[in-house]
Automatic annotation (TrEMBL):
Name of protein: Uncharacterized protein
UniProt-listed Pfam families: LIDHydrolase
Keyword Transmembrane: yes
Bilayer-crossing regions: 186-211
Amino acid sequence: MPSPPSSKIHLLTPPEPGKKAASRTYIIYFLTGNPGLVEYYRTFLTHLYGLLSRDTASSRDVEFQVYGRSFSGFEMNTSDIKTMKWRKQPPYGLQDQIRHAEEDVVEVVEEAKEQGARDVRVVLVGHSVGSYISLEIIRRLRAHGMAGEDFDTKIVGAVGLFPTVVDIARSESGMKASPFLKNSNFATFASILVSFLTCFLPVSLIAMLVAKFMDFPEDAAHTTASFVKSPFGIQQALHMARDEMFQIDTDIWDEDIWGATTPSQHPHPRPLLRFLFARQDHWVADSTRDALISSRGRYQGAVEEVGGMGESWKPVMEIDEREGWPHGFCIRHGVPVAEKAAGYVKDIVGQDLQK
């Protein structure tokens, strides 16, 4: 019987006695979509780590770590939920998740340094709402830096995969979900109903039904079944989705996030941003995507940049016109999307190494 899904995935090469530590460590910190179970992304994260580490296996100049955790409230066991640390019980809202993730990024960097890493830098990779949270983490940490509170956590870049960073309620799925999520009691009612319907069903049977009716592969089916049976999963997902509908609307970030021709006044350079949009995405309206690219980004096609000449400071925003990867890529397309994400990360790291 498969073990319960893990709430954390941390991929790194253990230190070897007598071997000199790398001069620079890049932590690829991954933020999931909703539902926020990191186990859905194990194939993606494992392949991403392999691609990044392959190029640095014989070098001690740079090393990579890949880290991801489930969002708060999606843990499989009540005992794993950090109620004392977060000072409240689930469900957690979008702002809670941003604060928890921000604190976790800082802690992961501190732990790496305690274990011997020297110069530690972070590249955030977010999927869906994880992309929104990534931008918010950057904004908040840079605000702390300007206030003199934290110069140690250096985020050099962020990658948004199928990002929902503005106007999620205008998407196809957003318009369908919003009427239900407007009711503040819907998350509680739905979680009680699902719990009642599945209380006598074992995880193995639910996984079999998910695999059959949703055509999920075995690993994703088991993760979904465990999510259904988790103590707060359904309520947490819907509670967070409600916040997404009403908080992810207008563009709330300034030039210190999106970039500008003028130098930043912050002690750290502005992070480099890369975004990958689907050609068709039921959580991102075409008009929303196109407006964001027009106002904030530069489109990068398969061969050369189009319309962004002389504006290399702008975030690269690419549309997947060829592969047809879905919004929920982690179910079946973890490997090819990891290859795409690895290219973005290598580009960010390569430019950071030149600074």
